């Protein structure tokens, strides 16, 4: 991987920062956040501005360019990747390390007095704007909005915004009509005395209307905004997309069942002026809900007295708690996904000794096998297929110049997932096709212990995910090891593979209590830089737990694995496992056999079935 | 315990709320916070305003009185106690339960439009003021300062503010002179470009000057403020206390060694005007450090542009990391404390069968035995001596009307501690002097498993205490049990038994990373309302841990118990313990024998020694 050469781009950007065509006074620093106008994690090519300016293409990172410096902040998953993708005009700021300054502190330390720091208000979240602005102001600087995006100014041949066909999802997939979702939303608004709700997150809009698109790779969403009042529903979307009769019928555009369920449609770009118009007509007590992570541009349209910012929206929470139909769909999707992976691993076992399988070809094979499954739509994120030292690059994606051959001598890590019409998957397995070293087995076993500790944890109703994070680390910590990422994220149902508002992480922000029906990942890891990476990831469903007692009738929860793919016993040092942990592995493998075995049988996939049967033999007492 | 009758008091307070002698417009609600002007947890009688108005005398709670309602918020430790001490004019607001509104939400739900909510700015912390004010303002109300405290207005015969003699601590106790502490503080100020520091927390001021007082029961502190600049040190204290030649010499009041170490003294009350004068003379770039938990009154003296609020002060952090002399002192104090407790338990075993020992007499005996130890100063908090159902009242304090007799049939819980000139102790043991029930043993064993899980935990440098909290609960959770309080708090060295900025709790605020030299408690529990309480508490020292590996050279930490008092084996269901846990118990008891046994021997306390030897016999493999 060779770094992007940015000398000329930075020169042009710095010139734009002084060009009074874009503002009344030159700015001394320009912030390039990661997201798009919807604060999406994955973004369309036209929105990859941070990647364009610095070369780093991970999913999280903020670049800041001053007259003298250029720096980029990212987290532990991306330290290695970012250092390889950026040239030496850029300083990598490793977030989470004690010595790394915050963006605010760094700006304050490098800027001349009374500096102006510019940012595009559409791609900075309102809460980030507030924090950044406060910090800069208290140091004598100011944060200013720059309406023309300065990256776009220097970006020749920037791609245009996608507008893919919309697909409609029926009751058999969603379990709840969009009309019922609107009604539930309005009930929440009534409860909190809110008159309007502005939806800006693309997955929330897709979920609300039971529509999907493919504007952003891996995420079945479409560019849109929605504003919901008690009598109106306004949808902002490229109007060409609504010509499809199926979509028109689904949304009842031509014959609304009730006046309050009449969807008014507007062009995507008109959300700003439409929201302005709504705000101009507000009564003195009217309040508008908007997520504090919505864009600064849209948030500031709403006068402060009428603005009711929330850390996550009622749609976000409703979407996170899956209904029975969604849970059933997620289960089916995971069985199909397991079939594809069993096939993959049986194939790898046969092919690797020939020396012809590479990280890329293995990833392609995984995609090919998944695509044979019913209702396959696409991948849910770029496959991480990594051999040996590449496995230590936490969000590695194989490229021709980094592509390694799978061998009998190195650890192989594959983190992959797919979108099916009935659900979204995300699974990581780490395997060795020869003989793993004692240290590799030791680390794998600590990671497995952590995975089991979370998966088997029983905890009271109302517990937030961050309280479970240390369970995943205890075995690693005891040996002086750790991993620099969270343990789990929410997973959407045929939606984004990463979603809020719950998760399992040492970070405690935006962490809503876990409740039955939520779906998260459980994915501890260990990364030995330059040598190997280990991660074990299942998607798990929060379910009620039966306990001996029931303190204050609070009830208890635990997890049920949805992912049903064998965990390689060869990588385990089973002596390090307790009897309870061995029992967990055996019971998990029994479930894989039972459920996935039946499906392999049904699909007539004999080699994969043989592989499954062999890989799920119970481990014996030592 | 009968509740305080508050009808007449509330009538008078509500009258004062309408009396324009105190403000230009009547107020519709009045907030009575728990603390004093220093936001102390334990407070002097003259500051017990919340107790005076509602009857509840726990260490944490906020009362709010409106024209129609009176409500009091407290946490899980105090639900039972508060419900018993307050009459039915008061609504108990159980913090931490999902259905309990915040103070802000409750006020907004009960107040008429455009209400004014009053509070004494000296006893509300600046951060609380900000949050409360923001919430009320956004709902159309306003938070206003009321200079005359309205409780004092209705409080006849309010006690006067104490002014006890000061005692000086030499290098053999502190390990660091106050001059060196001032120098270190100034170095931190230089590093952060701060020109002044305002100290308002009483334990920080006592620690800084190596002085102690006894103005507040159990806490060896004295009422004072301090303001430190680069050339001046201003101490605000009742000037009569500085007449003592020992104090004058200690502070070098008559012959400062260097001009910048010259302490200027002022009356306690003049801190407000003196800070005003300092602020009037500030240069444009001058910044003043003040804790965001300092009083709103004092914080607002500092113009916003010059104010640099911090969640905890450099003194707070420096005080939390004990030096070698302090650690040695804490160890000695805990050995003496263990001697007293071994004697107590040996005595209880002999006396309980006679039916003459009560909760109060047991607590008195514990105090008597502690007072025989060298350098004993007093208790570090009111002894919780509780039998059977009283044990379920988490911060129970025996009173004549609740006093139960210790018996062979009920669980006994004693949580007690002392101040010695060399250190502060805090220890809880739960015992049965007859035959515990299977359920009592089961719960005790889960609590013990949690205690051990924290005490034996190994974790990376930089880990915050909240990440360890769930270790203490895992065994309870698995059985559907829990406890509604944190797991540990910082402990001062001959200072407050509760101190910041570290601890072990599911609450994550003001939680600084643990580092070697910090001292915290480890005290999980289980409370069966109406039946029994169990808690197991050791004070533990954070120490470096040796681990097999050392990921990114971060280093690891673990805990070393300072408390060395046997844990009753009779209460354990040893079959529920793992071999590792049994080993931990045996090794802990070996240490108790070795260290406390030697001291009992030296002090010639034969009965206690015999008790210790018997109670520390190794538990055998099942």
List the helices and strands and how they pair.
The structure is a homodimer of 622-residue chains.
Chain A: H1 7-18, E1 29-32, H2 49-54, E2 62-66, E3 70-74, H3 79-85, E4 91-94, H4 103-110, E5 116-119, H5 126-138, E6 142-145, H6 150-154, E7 167-168, H7 171-174, H8 178-191, E8 196-199, H9 202-209, E9 211-212, E10 224-228, E11 233-237, H10 245-250, E12 263-266, H11 271-280, E13 288-291, H12 296-299, E14 307-310, H13 314-320, H14 324-351, H15 359-371, E15 376-379, E16 384-387, E17 411-416, E18 418-420, E19 423-424, E20 427-432, H16 438-455, E21 459-460, H17 469-478, E22 488-490, E23 499-504, E24 519-522, E25 525-528, E26 532-535, E27 538-545, E28 556-561, H18 579-603, H19 606-615
Parallel strand pairs in A: 1-5, 3-4, 5-6, 8-13, 11-12, 13-14
Antiparallel strand pairs in A: 1-2, 2-3, 7-9, 8-10, 10-11, 15-18, 16-17, 17-20, 18-19, 21-28, 22-23, 24-27, 25-26, 27-28
Helix pairs in contact in A: 14-15, 14-18, 14-19, 16-17, 18-19
């Amino acid at each position: 991987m060779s770094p992007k050469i940015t000398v000329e781009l930075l020169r042009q950007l710095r010139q734009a920062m002084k060009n009074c065509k874009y503002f009344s006074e030159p700015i001394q620093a320009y912030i390039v956040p990661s997201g798009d106008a919807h604060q999406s994690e994955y973004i369309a090519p036209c929105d990859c501005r941070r990647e364009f300016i610095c070369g780093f293409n991970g999913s999280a990172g903020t670049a800041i360019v001053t007259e003298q410096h250029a720096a980029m902040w990212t987290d532990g998953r991306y330290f290695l990747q970012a250092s390889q993708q950026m040239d030496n005009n850029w300083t990598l700021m490793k977030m989470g390390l004690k010595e790394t300054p915050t963006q605010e502190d760094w700006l304050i330390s490098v800027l001349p007095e009374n500096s102006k720091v510019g940012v595009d208000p559409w791609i900075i979240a309102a809460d980030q704007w507030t924090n950044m602005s406060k910090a800069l102001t208290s140091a004598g600087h100011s944060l200013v909005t720059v309406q023309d995006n300065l990256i776009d100014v220097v970006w020749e041949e920037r791609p245009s915004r996608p507008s893919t066909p919309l697909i409609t999802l029926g009751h058999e997939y969603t379990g709840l009509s969009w009309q019922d979702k609107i009604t539930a939303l309005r009930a929440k608004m009534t409860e909190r005395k809110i008159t309007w709700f502005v939806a800006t997150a693309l997955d929330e809009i897709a979920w609300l209307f039971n529509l999907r698109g493919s504007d952003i790779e891996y995420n079945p969403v479409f560019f849109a905004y929605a504003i919901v009042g008690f009598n109106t529903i306004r949808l902002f979307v490229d109007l060409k997309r609504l010509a499809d009769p199926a979509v028109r019928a689904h949304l009842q555009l031509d014959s609304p069942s009730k006046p309050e369920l009449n969807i008014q449609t507007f062009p995507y770009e008109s959300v700003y002026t439409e929201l302005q118009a709504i705000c101009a007509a507000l009564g003195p007590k009217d309040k508008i809900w908007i997520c504090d992570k919505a864009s600064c541009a849209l948030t500031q349209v709403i006068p402060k007295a009428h603005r009711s910012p929330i850390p996550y929206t009622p749609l976000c929470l409703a979407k996170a708690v899956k209904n029975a139909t969604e849970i059933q769909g997620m289960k089916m999707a995971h069985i199909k996904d397991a079939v594809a992976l069993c096939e993959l691993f049986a194939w790898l076992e046969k092919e690797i000794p020939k020396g012809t399988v590479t990280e890329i070809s293995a990833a392609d094979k995984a995609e090919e096998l998944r695509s044979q499954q019913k209702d396959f739509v696409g991948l849910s994120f770029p496959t991480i297929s990594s051999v040996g030292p590449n496995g230590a690059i936490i969000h590695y994606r194989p490229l021709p110049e980094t592509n390694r051959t799978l061998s009998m001598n190195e650890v192989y890590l594959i983190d992959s997932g797919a979108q099916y019409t009935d659900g979204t998957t995300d699974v990581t397995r780490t395997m060795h096709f020869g003989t793993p070293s004692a240290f590799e087995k030791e680390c794998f076993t600590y990671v497995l212990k952590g995975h089991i500790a979370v998966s088997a944890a029983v905890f009271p109703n109302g517990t937030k995910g961050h309280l479970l994070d240390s369970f995943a680390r205890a075995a690693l910590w005891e040996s002086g090891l750790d991993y620099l990422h969270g343990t789990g994220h929410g997973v959407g149902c045929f939606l984004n593979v990463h979603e809020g508002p719950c998760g399992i992480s040492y970070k405690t922000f935006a962490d809503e209590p876990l409740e039955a029906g939520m779906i998260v990942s459980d994915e501890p890891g260990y990364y030995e830089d330059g040598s190997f990476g280990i991660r074990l990831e299942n998607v798990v469903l929060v379910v009620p737990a039966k306990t001996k007692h029931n303190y204050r009738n609070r009830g208890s929860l635990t997890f049920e694995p949805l992912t049903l793919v064998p965990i390689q016993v060869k990588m385990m040092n089973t002596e390090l496992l307790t009897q309870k942990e061995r029992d967990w592995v055996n019971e998990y493998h029994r479930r894989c056999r039972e459920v996935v075995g039946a499906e392999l049988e049904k699909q007539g996939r004999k080699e994969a079935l043989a592989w499954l049967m062999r890989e799920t033999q119970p481990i014996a007492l030592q």
